[in-house]
Each structure stands twice: as C-alpha cells, then as structure tokens.
Amino acid sequence: xxxxxxxxxxxxxxxxxxxxxxxxxxxxxxxxxxxxxxxxxxxxxxxxxxxxxxxxxxxxxxxxxxxxxxxxxxxxxxxxxxxxxxxxxxxxxxxxxxxxxxxxxxxxxxxxxxxxxxxxxxxxxxxxxxxxxxxxxxxxxxxxxxxxxxxxxxxxxxxxxxxxxxxxxxxxxxxxxxxxxxxxxxxxxxxxxxxxxxxxxxxxxxxxxxxxxxxxxxxxxxxxxxxxxxxxxxxxxxxxxxxx
Amino acid sequence: xxxxxxxxxxxxxxxxxxxxxxxxxxxxxxxxxxxxxxxxxxxxxxxxxxxxxx
Lengths: 244, 54
Prior knowledge:
heterodimer, A: mainly alpha, globular, B: mainly alpha, 1 helix, 83% helix
C-alpha cells in the first residue's frame, strides 16, 4: 500500500475519521497532565523563581510554531510536485494553528522576558525572526483568502511558504548562527551534558510537548476535513449554477 | 490549591490564561467551522439527490 493513497480525498476522509478521536484524546490527556504537573507540582527555579512554569506553554508552542511551518512546506512541495489537492488543503488548514502557536509563544515570551531580562521585547535574532515568521503566517492566510481560483492560490501560497521557511529555520537556529541576543539556546536535548534541564522540569515538559504535537495533528486533520468538504460544497454549488 | 508564585504571579498566571484562552478559541472556531460546512454540504447533497430522484 502506498502513502499516496491517502492523498485521495475519500480515503483521507475515511482514515482521518478513525484517527482524529484517538489523537484528540491523546492531546487532552497529555495537555491536562503536563500543564497541571508543570503549573502545580514543579518547584521554583533558584534563579528564575516561579516564572520557570511558563516553560511548559512557551517551549512547546514555540517549537510547534516552527514545526507547523515545516509541515506546511512539505505539504506545499507535495502539492507543487504531485498536485495532490489534499496536501495543499492540509497546508492551508495548518496555518491558523501555527499562527496561534506563534502568538502564544510571543506573548508568553514577553511575560517571561519582562521579569527575567527587564524588557518585554528585544530585537535579538531569535525574537525578530520569530516575529517575522508570525507575519508570514498572516500573509499566507491572507493570500489564500485573496485568490479565488483554488489551484492558483495553492501555487502562490506554496511559493510564499518556501520563502517563509528561511525565517522558520532562522528562528530555530538563530542562537547558534549569531551567538548573540538575550535568548538562550535549547537545553532540552542536553541530558547528560553540562547545564542540562533539571529532571523536575524535563518530564512534564516532554508530556506537554507530546500534548501540543497531538493537538496540532488533531486540529490539522479536523481543519483539513473541513477544507475537503468546503471544496466539495463549492463544486456542487458550481454544478447547480451551471444546471440553472 | 494554588501554588505560591510570589512576585511573579501576574506573569505566570497571565501566560497560562492567554495560552489557554487562545487555544480554546482555536478549538471552538475549528469545530464550529467544521460543523457549519458539514451542515451546508449535507443540505446541498440532499437537495441534489432529491432533485435527481424526484
């Protein structure tokens, strides 16, 4: 069986109907457990005090904001190369979810930065490229809405997605590229190394990350199903207009 | 029940509040749009099936 079978709208609708409840259930379970654990049961950090609890919403949403754009890039490339409509619709469906994650990461970052850095915002490489990524999300959503022909919209948004990928990559690796600015590098993969993330925060953070990944998958599947239905609705209405 | 958040209580509670609020809005909008489009599609399909059979 080939993966491209799922590009068939009928097959996609059948499969996603089965998958969505399980992924949504996993998201609710992990988010409830991870956020309650992170907020109520983790100790204060010796340097950052209780602001360390912001970690459990800030890090997973920032991670998923970038990953959502990468997923859109892959879906857009599949559209450009193989012309599978479901992949273009999946890219479109993911954009509002990615934008919401970007907004949450920016707002929680400001709430965290103010007491720790003494400022709500700094024009450092990571923060600036992340803000530009957020603007690309807005532009991407606006472009889909502005073009009437669906295939043309999918083509142009795919190109925009490729351009925006530069900022998705920059926002993830800016700390390594420039080694400047207020934002620190990632510590989650530094288990066993010097200055790793304390185990008291590591486990609930991983639970939250799994929860946000599952939430993203569930929302994108639900929204893609809506996009497939909306496309069929447009086709049926167009057929009615021709018949009149 | 509420953990002792000290002088950073506003920053921490606001972060969770904004995050959960935005996520709830996204989930509600996603489900609402899904149901609206499904209802419209079902109505058009029923109308066209009725026209074909009648």
